[in-house]
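dumping these here so i dont lose them again. two proteins, back to back, each one seq then structure tokens. dont judge the mess
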Amino acid sequence: MITQHADRLTGVLGIAVSSMYVYQASQIEDSLLADAVGVAGVPTAIGYLMLAASICLFLKSWLKTKQKAEASEEETEPGGSDHPHLKAVGLLAILAAFVAIVSVFGFVVSIGLFVAAVAYYAGARDVKTLLMCALITGPMLWLSFDFALEIHLPTGMWSQWIGK
């Protein structure tokens, strides 16, 4: 199966699954202890994010030319392994490293390193792009969760070392 067909199929399945997910999330009833976001707020937002990603993937499949798709089928991917199970094991190892360091370095630093490691493993090799991605992702997620959603993320041991 060429990449275009795989992207179209994945996009359509993603649209269907995320639509069902959004519907199910919207059916969650608020309790008396619910905050301003509500119990269904985060799951619904994740569902819409999944829906947007699926639509983008589906549209991307139509924008690729057939020649580019055939050329990309012949090339091997720059990151990881050609075997999907070995790729999954590699991603699992990166996730295990994230879990191990999050208690020491905290969420902001750990998620930046995690995103950079996954991007490198997936084939991104531009050091400037990896560095910018790592430096932007952590603080943006921290701002989203800590300030917007008021969900406090782990700060790690380094905050104790500097006296906070």
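---- next one ----
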Amino acid sequence: MSDTDSFIDEVNEELRRDKLFHLFRKYGWIAVALVVLVVGAASYYEWQKVREKAAAEALGDSIILALGAVSPESRVQQLATISTDNTQAQYYLDLLKSASQTEAGDRTAALRLLDAVAADTDAPEVYRQLAELKAVILRGADQDRATRMATLERLATAGAPFRVQAMEQQALAMFEFGDKDGALVILKNILNEPGATQGLIQRAQQLIVALGGELSTAADAATE
């Protein structure tokens, strides 16, 4: 390579460095801003996680403390003082409040909360169906028969989260309406349900016997 070529290469290299330097001076702040933004976002995300965890722990402690109250009236009062910005937690809290209100004998207040959760389309389906089932149970005979059975029928559909509990209520309602045979059919079907707990199966078996049904037949069906 000649001295001229070498000189030209050096000039070109110097020009490239000078161009990069000017570009950095002109746009370098963008890179710095991006770094700051990424670091800031990561820090904020971690802070949010810590904050949410602390809030969840505080809410859990408050609920445990309230549920530890001796009387249902005290539980109602303590649960009423708990508030949360988490809408999911609020639905759960409302269900706990309604249970304590029921124990305290305030049926009207309990039904008001249950109906509100059941009607809230933003609530998770599992909470809505639980609220609806508890409301049906709490109202008992003080509701239209057709509405009661239609609600239980819907809650007892395959795949519903509280299917077996709704089936039990169906059987009880049928017996209440004088349909002993229909109640026995549902009680025997409960024994075949994979989601039935041991406690629920035992209750179903006791009801089958109490209604004059054949427990051995039901037991055989449950083991098939």
